[in-house]
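Methods: example folding runs. The two proteins below were folded one after another, and each record is reproduced exactly as written to the output file, sequence line first and structure-token line second.
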Amino acid sequence: MRTWKVGELAKATGLTVRTLHHYDEVRLLSPSHRTAAGHRMYSEGDVQRLQQIVSLRSLGFALDDIRGVLSGRELTPIQIVRMHADRLRQQIRTQQRLVERLDAVAAGLGKAEHVSADELIHLIEETTMFDKYYTPEQLDQLAARREQVGEGRIAEVEAEWPRLMAEVRAEMDRGTDPSDPRVQELARRWTGLVREFTGGDPGIARSLNNLYQNEESVRGMDVGPMREMGAYIARASAAANPQA
């Protein structure tokens, strides 16, 4: 039976040794064999599980969710592979739409002589940012959600976010424990606004999280501080629901 050391498997798959070690630490994927000298080795079965993990990650699943899917056998290996293939097809369609939009921008530039670089950058970001992380179906859901909520409420939420983030940052700077009632209330407001945006759809919530985890800026906003605040709010939510 073929086996791989951690470095060998990392090199073969393009993953990092650190990633494989992390999967081992969180008990998502551990090498199932040991050599006579005690070295831990990955088996072919481990590679199959790793492929499922990589596919599910590409679909936006969090590691805890992946553990649940694989342990509960909610999806078969072939279903996971097919889901991954479907996502790639969606991404191909998304990229094709992007090409068409950029062609349209190029045609417009041929007529407008005074389009600034900042305007072009903003246009490209607005055109592509969400397409990178949301499926066409999710974008349709978000459009319908926007229509359902109404422009008035959207304006209220856009005004509420800066105030809320300032309050969260203030508590972080004070070193307030996430279990403190003040932070718990901020966490309720935070999750409420996110839920209002996603409509409670867990897939859209995962896509939103991927967007903020992978981009350095969103609509001109530095995402780094947002990630820190999100992690703080996550700890507050965990403190409020220790059994979740």
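Second run, written to the same file directly after the first:
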Amino acid sequence: MSNLLPIHIDENSRTPIYDQIESQLKILIVSGTLPPGTVLPSIRKLATSLSCSVITTRRSYQNLEQQGYIKTIQGKGTFVAHIDIENKDEQKKAAVKKALKDAVSLGKNYQYSDETLLTWFTALLKEENERD
């Protein structure tokens, strides 16, 4: 876990590290945890904090900048960009749908039935609601 941002890298994951950083930063931005204008750590500082290469963090920042989540101002730093409410809602929806799709695909690959997957999903929702 980074001491600069609440990002956790799973070294055992098949997902590339740059993608893990990118997706977690998107969640922090879209959820409002990192509001527009928030100064992000430099590429080097984040790399050191996450114990990964500068090239990896640079790739994450470049992808996020291309997608409009962050902006870099030469000599000043990297900042969270303003994302309109409609786009935020679409991004949140897309992220959740992707996670659910990935979970369903994994369950199907392990040959679990629709009924079993639905039972698990319902139980997880119930657990989560009881924590609130």
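Comment on the second run: Helices lie at 17-30, 43-50, 54-66, 85-109, 114-131.
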